[in-house]
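User: I'm curious what two different proteins look like when written out as structure tokens. Can you demonstrate?

Assistant: Sure. I'll show them one after the other, since each token string lines up with its own sequence. Here's the first protein:
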Amino acid sequence: MLRSLSTVALAATLALSVGGAGGCGPMTGAGAKSRPLPAYAGRAADLFDDSIDPAAVGMDFDKGYTPRADPMLRERAQTSDAVLRVKISTVTGKTDGPEVTYQLGLHIVEKLTGANPPPADFTVAVSKSSESHGILKNFEGRLVGYPFVAFVREFVRPDGDHEVHFHLSPDTKEVKAAVNDAVVLGEAYAK
């Protein structure tokens, strides 16, 4: 009981520190500078889908996850505001009627790439429509302390406010190497 209360208190503090009760407030620090932000729609919504790769939590039963062969990983790495090694610091379920939305408090361990990272501690939301809602429902508190590679990007909402969307992949050497390859490939094409 004491741990869950401290987790809730920490989650509330993190949510307020990133600028909103929704938990997906605007980025601060390097990302706070005025820059045009895309709308969260189309291909961007596919890439930053607010989900967790099943392989990242040991659910890749056919062992078919190969990061270097994943075109989505390559495109995420090339279009992210930042690619980060993170650890989950909190998992909080918020009930709104019959639906539960999860908020994940993330702590940056290392920046792999990107010019616009979020603050060192930030919060993201996972709605019931996310493919990872079941992962969160089943793993919930066991995810605290779990490492991931996070692809994050800030978007503008129709009301003009900003929100951060993400995708979490396994924190492995293979994923980090695939991210590095994608960034180098993207720079080569830009020349």
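Here's a second, unrelated protein for contrast:
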Amino acid sequence: MADQAEQLRNIIKSDAGAKALNSRPMARVITVTSGKGGVGKSNTSINLAIQFRSRGKRVIILDADFGLANIEIMFGTMPKHNLSDLIYQHKNIKDIITWGPGDVGFISGGSGIEGLSNLSKGDLTYIIQNLAQLDAMADVIIIDTGAGISDAVLEFLVASGEILLVTTPEPTSITDSYSLLKALNRHPRFSTNNTQIKVITNRVENEREGEILFSKLNVVVGRYLGLPLTFLGSVPQDKLLSQSVMQQLPVSLAHPGAKSAEAYSLLAEKLIDPDSDRTLKKRGMAAFFSHIVANKRNL
């Protein structure tokens, strides 16, 4: 496997790879995850994307919940192509982007990233060059991972420099969030110094409940894992949010005055705060993907 890893390094260092990775300032890649399903992770991804877009940011969501189609269902849009078509059919990156409500782009993950370790040098070069185009097309790329602790989820988290962890007051959500962080912390290629983990407490009665929920998780994580967490904010329980899901529209568009939409607006404001942005090391999408491939090749 060492020769495969060296092959990937050579692609990235080559003229084509260097041009792809250094053609412009890197896009900000934000990975949204959760310890279990049904806690509002995809809603968070979509509504943050809408809020970023309303502030003039160009946004693309990668639905990395392979095998499911949460983003496209919530957007009410059926994509013609997905990430697998880029990887295995050599479709152009522009061919696999579907534009949803609010002029937010999204890419369906398709069947996932299985088999990446078997790709040829030409295939990898093609993929990296195409993904580098996303850095020119978007200011922010949101990765909506699958829920729970799987190898695919961990690979995306390890490759990310900025993680948003969504949790709820349900005891199972809290314990599963801890389990996910424990698995991430044990990953041999996870770097605490190069990763920011921000927590969003969802479906709380008020901000105070959200703060208490974060404090409980933070104490346990700090004591047993030594991981630094940041409390980003809360999203309240909101009937209008549930209604918007049924309407297949983000609540930020369907009901912009709703409590949940206003909460997503505040979260977006915190994320695009200039001081916060300066502390981030932007990797860009091509480098993000290269990191995943390297993991698949046992680098």
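A detail about the second structure: The radius of gyration is 18 Å.
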